[in-house]
Specification:
heterodimer; A: alpha+beta; 4 helices; 25% helix; B: Beta-Lactamase; 2 domains; five-stranded antiparallel sheet
Chain lengths: 118, 182
């Protein structure tokens, strides 16, 4: 399982890192190719721009539950989830999400491997 | 921390508590969008389906949750999701749900919730009443048996009374005969 520092060095897969508020703080070059966003466009934007609208409620509830309880249900395992590109195209992708604490705040990182081109 | 950041933090805390609280409810709760696509469910619903939470989210509820009625698979247009999608404001009914080899009896209630310009959601609460149904059926059987036994007792009592009357009558006749003999 990759640490968030290791994810920052990942070049073969799209990587996104977000802070405790769910705001994007880092994306790698592969992310920009797959999702169509430039780094400047996504920095500070909420993670929900990468999630299909139908899953926003579940994301916010699950994210909030983790921050409130510290109990993870989805971290550090392979998850097949839909993702959405800048132009609104949805695709299946294997996500591996991890969380670490840094200076008392959570940092979240994910690798997102596209599973199909539809 | 800015005021906005403080408010976000408070709202996250509230949402987190609500999620945890709803996960302690024994009834299953699931809400879908207007097309019947699952937006969220509590952990009781995951357990009912025996599915991972992540596999339930984003799936079509009617595909995920095939139901039966009267021992027959429920046609797609009679599924609670289809009925609610057809603008029905609410519904309540009893349905069968096959989980592995087990047939569960479920009480399902659905409500359409309008969110103004944010569209509508279909909210379903599902209660597993299998054990209650079994207990009610057993109670009904026991009541029937009790009634049968009571009827039998009443019949025997009637026979006893009839016999007692016959004995009384015979005793009286014997008494008359004795007096005649004397």
């Amino acid at each position: 399982m990759q640490t968030i520092d290791e994810m920052r060095g990942e070049t073969g897969l799209p990587v996104v890192i977000a802070d405790q508020d769910g705001l994007i703080t880092y994306v790698n070059g592969h992310f920009k190719t797959v999702f169509g966003w430039t780094e400047a466009e996504v920095m500070g934007r909420p993670l929900t721009i990468l999630i299909p609208p139908g899953l926003h409620d579940a994301h916010q509830l699950g994210f909030s539950r983790f921050l409130t309880t510290g109990k993870a249900t989805l971290l550090n395992q392979s998850l097949k989830l839909r993702a959405v590109t800048k132009d609104g195209r949805e695709f299946d992708a294997e996500h591996i999400i991890t969380a670490e604490q840094s200076q008392g705040r959570w940092v979240f990182g994910a690798t997102i491997r596209p599973l199909s081109s539809d | 921390m800015s005021d906005a950041s403080e408010i976000v933090s408070q709202l996250r805390s509230t949402l987190g508590k609500v999620e945890v609280a709803l996960s302690t409810v024994s009834d299953a709760i699931v809400w879908t969008d207007e097309r019947g696509i699952v937006q969220w469910c509590n952990s009781s619903f995951d357990r009912l389906l025996d599915c991972r939470h992540i596999d339930v989210l984003g799936a079509a509820l009617s595909d995920l949750f095939p139901l039966e009625q009267g021992g027959q698979p429920l046609p797609q247009d009679a599924h609670p999701v289809s009925r609610m999608r057809a603008e029905q404001p609410s519904l309540a009914g009893r349905y069968g749900f096959r989980r592995s080899e087990q047939m569960l009896v479920l009480a399902i209630a659905g409500t359409r919730v309008q969110f103004g310009e944010h569209g509508a959601a279909l909210v379903f609460t599902i209660q597993d009443i299998t054990e209650r149904e079994r207990a009610e059926a057993a109670l009904q059987t026991a009541n029937g048996e009790l009634q049968r036994q009571l009827n039998q007792v009443a019949w025997l009592q009637q026979i006893m009374m009839d016999r007692e009357n016959e004995i009384l009558k015979l005793t009286q006749e014997i008494s008359v005969l004795r007096q005649d003999l004397q």
